[in-house]
User: Which sequence fits this backbone?
């Protein structure tokens, strides 16, 4: 079985990668992924893909799964990987630790191709924990967020964070499921007031056009705060365009949440 991926230099230290299906990944810093991180990311991404599928077949009531890879590399070129420890965190109701252990073992020993390939060259270890804590799993949001533990469990924050996660994953149906039927979205463009979209159909049309117009995009949350039914989120938007341009801008969104759904999203930008 032959599979082909591609990488292309755009400009400066900006590179555009495509997987076998043509899905884009921007490799640069600080507005994209770091090349050396692609290896541990591949390992934990591959493992989670299998583990989640196995747990779903087992009918485990999993609400969140997270994997963190801690790597040890040489201090001198070529900075070879020597050790990698993976820590899995599972959240949900009535989770069976034996079934969790079985899912992890099956992924690492039978199904995950990157894990199997690296095992001969890198000292790979792993462990896991199970938590029943409510709310968004720790670490899913970038480390610059300044929220307390109580904030992380706020339902308004949870709705906005889930929407942002779905947006970054380009999961349009998941995004729409978090909106009210009469939702309102005000874009940052064109100045001075931006375009206004009213109703779920109109908002969906905007995001469909948005995804078609960009090769890769990501909204990194800088800070997020809930104020009753309102939420203020500062973000950095990173993109790679169809014209092979790449860059970032900073801005903020003001959300209004009604009965757990987004009724209004007003966007503002610097510059």
Assistant:
């Amino acid at each position: 079985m032959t599979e082909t991926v591609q990488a292309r230099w755009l400009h400066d230290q900006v590179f555009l990668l495509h997987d076998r299906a043509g899905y884009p990944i921007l490799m640069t810093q600080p507005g994209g992924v770091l090349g050396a991180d692609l290896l541990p990311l591949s390992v934990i991404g591959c493992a989670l893909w299998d583990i989640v599928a196995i747990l779903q077949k087992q009918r485990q009531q999993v609400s969140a799964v997270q994997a963190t890879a801690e790597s040890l590399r040489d201090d001198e070129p070529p900075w070879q990987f020597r050790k990698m420890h993976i820590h899995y965190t599972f959240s949900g109701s009535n989770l069976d630790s034996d079934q969790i252990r079985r899912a992890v073992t099956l992924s690492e020993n039978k199904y995950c191709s990157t894990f199997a390939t690296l095992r001969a060259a890198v000292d790979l270890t792993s462990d896991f924990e199970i938590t029943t804590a409510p709310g968004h799993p720790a670490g899913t949001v970038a480390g610059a967020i300044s929220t307390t533990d109580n904030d992380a469990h706020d339902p308004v924050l949870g709705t906005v964070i889930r929407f942002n996660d779905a947006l970054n994953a380009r999961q349009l149906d998941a995004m729409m499921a978090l909106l009210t039927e009469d939702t309102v979205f005000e874009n940052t463009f064109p100045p001075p007031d931006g375009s206004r979209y009213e109703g779920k159909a109109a908002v969906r049309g905007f995001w469909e056009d948005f995804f078609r117009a960009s090769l890769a995009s990501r909204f990194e949350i800088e800070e997020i705060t809930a104020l009753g039914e309102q939420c203020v989120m500062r973000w950095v938007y990173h993109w790679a365009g169809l014209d092979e341009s790449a860059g970032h801008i900073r801005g903020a969104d003001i959300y209004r949440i009604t009965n757990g759904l987004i009724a209004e999203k007003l966007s503002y930008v610097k510059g």
